[in-house]
Amino acid sequence: MKKLEIRKVSKSYFKDDIEYPVLLDINFDIADGEILCILGSSGCGKTTLLRLTGGFELPDSGEILLKGQKIIKPNKDRIMLFQDFQQLFPWKTVLENVMLPLNIHCIGKNIEVRKKTAQKYLSMVQLEGYEHYFPYQLSGGMKQRAAIARSLALEPEILLMDEPFANLDAQTRNTIQKLLLEIWKQTGITILFVTHDIQEAITISQRIVILNKNTKDISYIIENQLPRPRTPNQEGFGEMFNQIYDLI
After folding, report:
1. pLDDT value of residue 15
2. Quick one: residue 43, left, alpha or beta (phi over 0 = left, psi -120 to 50 = alpha)?
3. Phi then psi dihedrals of residue 231, to 5 deg
4. Can you give the three-state secondary structure of 157-184, one letter per residue?
5. 139 Cβ partners below 8 Å, 6+ apart?
6. What is d(CA 231, CA 174) in angstroms, rounded to the nearest whole number?
7. To which H or E segment does residue 211 belong?
């Protein structure tokens, strides 16, 4: 079943009356429950495509459909997670941060129900015992895990992730990649994940869309059928890495 459909999407920006194309005639689908990675070098339009999917911008032509409905504005059915560590409100505790969108959207019949929902997702990201900490007391990786919990609490149709682990050290990044896959297995959530890191794309994805910086369109869509859990030394990983490296 198709969760997301991206149909002939193009986008340009203008500066001093000069048009700069960013995306040209982009076409692909994402299945319900799929993890799809958008991969490419800086400036290829990855983040722009994610922002269009989030409804923060509109395409110049084409359309993006979520469950058959055209996306025209942001909505809680599409939650976007960024690479910046400062996504949490510093004056609120971890628990209060995760509860905030539930309170805003009046999800759950009372505060106690919302608190249990927030605690459920904090447990899922392994932050039990940190409910009453403030963001300044957390490491970068813990802040990202709290931001993931807050995103999941709304139970969105699709999670949009814009290089969320790019600023983490290698060990923490590897740990949270594994945690994200465990969350995906538990929830079945659909994930559209932007990265410029080939190893990360191979580790996480079921399919990889490679954007071409020069032609502004899709170069390739690669099926990733390597068995999980995936590690760089497993059979086939290096071959896929080299194949993708040659395509970017």
Report:
1. 86
2. left
3. -135, 155
4. CEEEEECCCCCCCHHHHHHHHHHHHHHH
5. 172
6. 10
7. strand 207-211
Bridge partner list, 5: 29, 65
pLDDT tens, position by position, 149-194: 999 999 999 999 999 998 899 999 999 999 999 999 999 999 999 9
Look at residue 231 and tell me whether its pLDDT is greater than 90.
yes
Domains and CATH numbers, the chain: 1-77+190-248 (3.40.50.300)
The model's confidence at residue 83, banded by pLDDT at 50, 70 and 90, is: confident
Q: In the block, which residue shows the tokens 């309170």?
A: 103
Helix (H) or strand (E) holding 48: helix 46-54
- Residue 148 burial (10 A CB sphere; 0-12, 13-18, 19+): buried
Helix (H, G, I), strand (E, B) or coil at 63: strand
Going from the C-alpha of 201 to that of each of 149, 236, 244, the distances in angstroms are: 22, 14, 10
> Rounded to the nearest 10 degrees, how much is the dihedral formed by the CA atoms of 37, 41, 43, 47?
20
For residue 247, CA distances in Å to 28, 115, 223 come to 18, 47, 14
Assess whether pLDDT exceeds 80 at residue 85: no
pTM attached to this predicted model: 0.94
Strands 190-195 and 158-162 turn out to be parallel
Strands 2-15 and 61-66: antiparallel
Find the DSSP H helices in 90-131. 94-104, 111-124
**pLDDT cut 70: percent of the chain above it:** 100
Amino acid at 188: G
